[in-house]
Write a structure and sequence with these properties.
mainly beta; 4-stranded antiparallel β-sheet; Methylamine Dehydrogenase, Chain H; single chain
């Protein structure tokens, strides 16, 4: 079997990143009585992303010690989970459901040495694989409708589907070397992406105003900044999370389409993901760090969760918030 830079980089980086944030200095965040509960998981694999469909249903994806890419599903609001492994040996990093029945998961298939997109049309009961051969692997997904979606990953790759995932077209990004780690669209025209020299160093912000046909760099963060999440609120407002070296992190905010940024929250914490739906959203990370916004990322309220493992993904809908992370962590809370 041939080897790719994707497989080597992603394995080494993910292992080191999780080890670092678990073993780092705890953040200076006040403790409060936690509304979060941790639940048993059927896997010890690292879970990188989660999507919540409604107050009862959610899906999570990951990879690690098992023999295949892992998809977990819950139908009771995160209290219990079931596991499927649809592709032997694959890695999964992102999952999205444009509708209750139509869903997509993205990652890397080492057997084919290329990008992998799994699709379900029956609410996760079965999954069909599509191989995206123009990239070594894919990291993030964004869907604007059941037909229109985007994926990003290795080799300067941003891909678009306009037919509900039946085919994917590579878009012109102006780079063939950078890794696109994060992707978010405000609408069908306006989108943002974060890229870097490798998985661990995404620090450039790209922007499109024509539905992905053309992308331009609008901001480059200083060395040592590693973006860990990206969320577009509208054509001008965008939020991001980042780690700053080995000592601190920040939640960032831009009001001018990513050209300039300010810190909305910073300190000795290590954010690993953020997810916004309109003005409301969440950021989460290591050492129990969690923060909530009701202002589209302009300001945040930080608190703690009981998680000991590093939390890597979070999503919320219909009063249910679910977070997932390393070693098969699944955690939930209800909103008032």
């Amino acid at each position: 079997m041939s080897h790719s830079p994707f497989g080597t980089l992603v394995f080494v980086f993910c292992s080191l990143a999780i080890a670092f944030v678990v073993g780092g200095t705890p953040p200076a965040i006040a403790t409060e009585s936690s509304p979060w509960t941790i639940h048993d998981s059927p896997t010890k694999d690292h879970l990188y992303d989660v999507t919540v469909l409604d107050a009862k249903r959610a899906f999570a994806v990951g990879w690690g010690t098992s023999e295949g890419a892992v998809i977990l599903a819950t139908r009771d609001g995160g209290a219990t989970w079931t596991q499927t492994s649809p592709v032997r040996g694959a890695y999964l990093f992102s999952i999205r459901f444009p509708t209750e029945s139509l869903g997509f998961a993205a990652g890397y298939d080492p057997a084919k040495n290329c990008g992998l997109i799994l699709m379900t049309r029956n609410g996760g009961k079965s999954w069909k694989a599509t191989h995206v051969t123009k990239t070594f692997g894919l990291y993030d997904l964004a869907f604007l409708s059941p037909k229109l979606g985007f994926a990003c990953g290795y080799g300067g790759g941003i891909f678009r589907t306009q037919n509900g995932g039946r085919s994917w077209t590579k878009l012109e990004t102006g780079t063939a070397d950078e890794v696109f780690r994060w992707l978010s669209f405000a609408d069908e025209k306006n989108g943002f992406a974060a890229a870097g020299d490798d998985f661990a160093t995404a620090r450039k912000i790209y922007r499109t105003t024509d539905g992905g046909r053309r992308w331009t760099v609008v901001h480059t963060f200083e060395d040592g900044t590693a973006l860990t999440g990206l969320a577009a609120i509208d054509a001008n407002r965008v939020a991001a999370s980042c780690m700053r070296g080995q000592q601190s992190g920040a939640l960032l905010y831009s009001e001018d389409a990513g050209v300039s940024w300010r810190s909305a929250l910073d300190g000795k914490f290590f954010p690993q993901s953020l997810r916004l739906d309109g003005e409301s959203g969440w950021a989460i990370g290591a050492h129990g760090f969690v923060a909530q916004t009701d202002s589209g990322g302009a300001s945040w309220r930080a608190s703690k969760t009981p998680a000991k493992a590093t939390v890597l993904g979070i999503d919320a809908r219909d009063g249910l918030v679910v977070a997932v992370g390393s070693d098969g962590l699944t955690m939930r809370r209800a909103l008032d």
